[in-house]
Structure formats: structure tokens, C-alpha cells
Amino acid sequence: MLQVNELNQYYGGSHILRGVSFEARIGDVTCLLGRNGVGKTTLLKCLMGLVPARSGSVTWQDKSITTRKPHQRVQAGMAYVPQGREIFPRLTVEENLLMGLTRFPARHARQVPEEIYQLFPVLSAMKHRRGGDLSGGQQQQLAIARGLIARPDVLLLDEPSLGLSPLLVEQLFEVLGRVRQSGVSILLSEQRAQHTVAFADRTHVISNGVERALLGPADAGDTQRMIAAYLATS
Prior knowledge:
Elements: E1 2-11, E2 14-24, E3 29-33, H1 40-48, E4 55-60, E5 63-64, H2 70-75, E6 78-81, H3 93-98, H4 114-119, H5 121-125, H6 136-148, E7 154-158, H7 166-181, E8 185-190, H8 193-199, E9 202-207, E10 210-215, H9 223-230
Parallel strand pairs: 3-8, 3-9, 6-7, 7-8
Antiparallel strand pairs: 1-2, 1-4, 4-5, 9-10
């Protein structure tokens, strides 16, 4: 289980995260939902150690990782797919994937596991194409696959549907469904309320750096509750 307790972070004089607390259970999909600029990306970066929290604690599998470096969190079973995908456009699909094998000794980092291509058949067909030649949806699959190649226990995704068409969003959530079935826990940040609330086991609505509501899949059909939670400002 990933547990976050009273996490605070500032940018200059701006209080970005204000005592955020939540838990992401093993085997579940947990969503951080909120509009742009409410602190979701900062929160995920804090969880991966890319941005040090000003105060509060992060516990992963009953061990404190609050002061651990990013590579130590990867070695502990965490993986992160940043907003904007950040693939290597001049490298081939296969080369991009091999970059994700840093968790393993060099002697094992020469081949993409077949289960990755089974999860993402489109990448198997395009393994020799450059990452920059893929469509937006295919690049997002590549970014997710690169995160999964090290066999993490939990995958952190920062706004994976950003910039995708409605059709590609549907395809993305189908992919995430396959990831979930493979046994990997998922923690994602999103702005698309309807899709994520219906998909996730629990959704924490974030506004102005504070959790405002906790939603479950059944709430996806409650339009008034969804609007009130999503637009909450105090």
C-alpha cells in the first residue's frame, strides 16, 4: 500500500500541496482528479522523489520512502509516466523500451519482455519505427509500456489522456484496463472526470492543493455530485 500523510509543498510563496493525505491500495486503481494547476503533478513528483516535500510522509509497503531518491523508489517497485510522455523521438520503439530496464542488471537489459508486446500489440508491430513517428495515442502506449517494463508494483501516471481525442481516450482506458488485469496497481492524475471516476476504485478530488471529496465508481452517474466535487474551491 502507498500511504501519503499530511504532505505539504511550496513553490516560492505559493502553498501548492496543503496537508494532502490518502492511500492507494495494492491491486486498485486510484485517481487524483482535478483541474489544471491544482497540484496533481507536484503530488506525483513528490511521491517519486523528483520534488522533495516540505513536510509530511510517504510510506510504501509499510516502509517510509519520504527521503529516498527517485532511483531508490524505482528499485522499490514504483514507476512513473510523466505528463507529455517524454519518449525519445529519435530512438526506435524498442530502444525506448530498453531504456526502462534500468532496474535490472545489465546482463538482463538487452531484450524487451514478450509480455510487454502482448499488452501493447501495436508496439510489437512498430518496434523498429522511431518514437517520433508514432501517433499521440501510440506514444502514450509507448510511455506506459516503458514504465511497465521494469515490472513495477505500482504505476504512477500523470494525465495520460492529455491531448488525446475522445476515441484515443477510450483506447487508452482499454490499455489501462489490461494493465490493471496484469496485477499492477495504478495511481493516475486526470482532468477527465467521467472516465476516471467510472474506471477507478476510488477517486480523490483535489482543489487548491487540498482533497475536497472522495468518489467511487457509482458516483460517475451522479452528475450533480460530480459537478459539485470537481468545481469545489473551499
